[in-house]
Design brief:
The protein is mainly beta and 193 residues long. It folds into two domains: 15-89, no CATH class; 100-191, no CATH class. The chain is 10% helix and 29% strand. The strands form four sheets. It has a three-stranded antiparallel sheet with strand order 1-4-3. It is globular, with a radius of gyration of 18 Å.
């Protein structure tokens, strides 16, 4: 079943980008961490048309990017990227109506002062808390330790989120907050099947 449509980025002189990681940060648990397909259309609903001038990058596990061509003559604006929206198809085991019994507790396995950012990786959490989390989560949420959503921190930082975890890397002059994550596991894992 497809997710709702998401329009995270706005077109600029560079292009338009609708990345899975930024959508997962802004809309936690509304899209799975490992989609199997992606659909793209303009915000007005027109399907994406392939053009020689504009470069498109589609990848269900990364998202969609449209890159504008270099400025060529006075007609360069004709080939600019439009404002796009995306939606993903997730495996059947993912549902936005997930069972609250299958969501893990919050984990904070790293501090932002220790290594140039805050890294909450699934592999580290699995090692630190064996048996408490599935090895194949279908969704991930991240927020600050104080409970603020990631997109509201206002920090000038690079953020990345996927099925393998969450990372925040310091980008001067910004600094990462202390983050925590929790995962949604398949129902079978929670029920012990």
């Amino acid at each position: 079943m497809p997710t709702p449509w998401f329009d995270q980025g706005n077109p600029s002189i560079i292009g338009d980008s609708e990345t899975l990681s930024s959508i997962m940060l802004t809309y936690p648990l509304q899209v799975c961490a490992q989609p199997i397909a992606i659909e793209v259309a303009t915000t007005s609903g027109i399907p994406v048309l392939i053009s020689v001038a504009v470069r498109f990058q589609y990848d269900p596990t990364k998202g969609f990017t449209c890159v504008n061509p270099p400025l060529i003559g006075w007609l360069w604006w004709k080939w600019w990227c439009k404002d796009y929206k995306v939606r993903f198809t997730c495996p059947r085991i993912f549902s936005t109506c997930y069972s609250s019994e299958c969501v893990t507790k919050w984990y904070d396995s790293d501090d932002p002062d220790t290594n140039g950012g805050d890294f909450e990786f699934l592999s580290t959490i699995l090692n630190k808390y064996p048996g408490e989390i599935c090895r194949n989560p279908i969704a991930i949420e991240a927020q600050t330790v104080s409970g603020d959503p990631v997109y509201q921190t206002g920090n000038n930082i690079q953020l990345y989120i996927s099925a393998s975890g969450f990372s925040c890397t310091h980008v001067k002059p910004g600094c990462c907050a202390d983050y925590k994550v929790r995962f949604t596991c398949p129902d079978e894992w929670c029920s012990g099947e």
